[in-house]
Amino acid sequence: MSSVSMRVARWLTNQWRGASALTLPQQSLHRPPPLSRPLSSRAGVSYPLQLSSVSESHASLYEESLKHPEQFWGDLASRRLRWTKKFDQVMDCDMRNGQFKWFLGGSLNVSENCVDRHAEEDPDRVAIIWERDEPGDTQFITYSQLLESTSRIANVLKREGVKKGDIVAIYMPASPLLAATMLACARIGAIHRYVYGCPCLHLQLTTNYLHV
Questions:
Q1: 8 A C-beta contact, residue 91 and residue 72
Q2: DSSP code string of 58-124
């Protein structure tokens, strides 16, 4: 086992043992307020998100996506996602030849979109509900807590030399720490592969794979 994998293992093990610090009271769980504003009013077209029923809403949105696909999806992507580089073209699709390209020229960070933007808007909103093995043993992880864990793990991986394009194999049980580790890999551009493991977090370094 390499010194790199040992240091990462030791750090993650300490985080695992301290996972109880992420426990929140039941009342912290809440749903985000419903969206009442139109999705877009650009070019005189408005896409309402709230209609009288779920089926009607889905049908109406689906119809709009067929009528104005480029504007519909371009507006959704612009308003709902955070781009590091804005796309130049929404779509380039050829149904006959089965070729589909979306948001050409654009780039984004999945981790930032999954965590950061929610933590900034509503840091106390629950991001993960963790049902443990014992009935009633439930933990609620907020976006603020998830952002902190994700950022710390990403910094540990970077400090130990993990960089964009590296492959990180994650060997640990299902938990909020696992989700944070996956998001940390995406944050720094590393590719993760998940292998379910026991809580002991046994690590082994093999060629081109860092097991954490």
A1: no
A2: HHHHHHHHHHSHHHHHHHHHHHHS-EEE--SEEEEEETTTTEEEEEET-EE-HHIIIIIHHHHH-TT
Q: What is the pLDDT of residues 78-132, one digit of tens each?
A: 999 999 999 999 999 888 888 899 999 999 999 999 999 999 999 999 999 998 8
Same domain, 146 and 201: yes
20 with 120, same domain? yes
Residues 115 and 185 grouped into a single domain: yes
Pair 52, 12 in one domain: no
CA distances from 26 to 125, 127, 174, 207 (A): 12, 13, 21, 44
**How many domains does the structure of the chain reveal?**
2
Per residue in 21-55, pLDDT (tens digit) is 443 333 334 433 333 333 333 333 333 344 344 45
Statement to judge: residues 68 and 115 lie in one domain:
no
Record the tokens describing residue 19, joined without a space: 């996972």
The set of residues, in sequence order, having a beta carbon less than 8 Å from that of 147 and lying 6+ positions away, is 115, 116, 119, 123
Residues 49 and 74 in one domain: yes
Range of the domain at 56: 36-80
Give this prediction's pTM. 0.68
